[in-house]
Automatic annotation (TrEMBL):
GO terms for molecular function: methyltransferase activity. GO terms for biological process: methylation. Keywords: Methyltransferase, Transferase. The keyword Iron-sulfur does not apply. This is Cyclopropane fatty-acyl-phospholipid synthase-like methyltransferase. Residues 39-169 form the Methyltransferase domain.
Length: 250
């Protein structure tokens, strides 16, 4: 089993990351949809949607949203959440591997935008698998539709690597160590719960902004904007923490 199928389906993943800054994320998404000038009612896919909070926020902004994620646990949680908020007519969730086609397999209507946010790319070992993501997005977007890829800035990561730290959540002490190996950033996550030792890891390929653009050119995409942070400041290779690329389908 690949690391992401294993790790994302455990309750510990959600414990470790439960205190993410949703205010920052919602502000980023608000700025993003305004910059893209997406009209009320536009159809958006939240690709690798996780626990669905951003999908629901897009729904609250007036969009028709489909959240896709590989984790069955997350998708089941999201469907219940959508029902709770009375949002199931305008936001839906399905289990899906982003490397597989969306058009014709999940839905048959093309969409205005696909968002892949908060480092949900670079998980795969082969370039071919990375390209399959772009191919899938290409197949589901309308002409002139937007693909937003929010990724790490490879240079910033290398220059600001925090090698070891500890986080305590729900009385569990997570010992985190990071290293860069063969152009991947690897995060080892070790902890003990109920007397049992656990070890999970995350592994993300450090694509540069140019490498991402080169992949896009194999499909029907043109890079139209490049931002460096969640306030949508211009990208600077040396100091920007993020590499947020806006592609338009030709």
């Amino acid at each position: 089993m690949t690391w992401f199928k294993n790790w994302f389906n455990t309750p510990y993943y959600h414990i470790l990351y439960k205190d993410r800054d949703f205010a920052e994320a919602e502000n980023f998404i608000s700025l993003l949809v305004k910059d893209l000038d997406l009209k009320n009612g536009s159809k958006i896919i939240d690709l690798a949607c996780g626990k669905g909070r951003h999908s629901l926020f897009l729904y609250k902004l007036g969009f028709d949203v489909l959240g896709l994620d590989l984790s069955e646990e997350s998708i089941n949680h999201n469907k219940i959440l959508a029902e709770k908020y009375g949002a199931s007519s305008k936001v839906s969730f399905e289990v899906h591997d982003m490397r597989e086609p969306i058009f014709g397999k999940i839905i048959t209507e093309k969409v205005d935008a696909v968002f892949n946010l908060f480092t949900s790319f670079g998980y795969f070992e082969s370039l071919e698998d990375d390209e399959k993501v772009f191919q899938s997005v290409d197949g589901i977007l309308k002409d002139s539709g937007f693909f937003v890829l929010d990724f790490l800035n490879e240079t910033f990561v290398k220059n600001n690597l925090q090698e070891e730290h500890t986080i305590v959540k729900d009385n569990i002490t997570f010992k985190i160590s990071k290293r860069i190996e063969n152009q991947h950033i690897i995060k080892d996550i070790r902890f003990t719960d109920n007397g049992q030792d656990f070890h999970f890891f995350e592994k993300v390929k450090l694509h540069t902004e140019n490498e991402i653009e080169m992949i896009s050119k194999k499909f029907n995409f043109e890079r139209v904007k490049l931002f460096g942070d969640y306030q949508l400041n211009n990208f600077d290779n040396q100091i920007s923490p993020r590499c947020i690329t806006i592609f338009k389908r030709k």
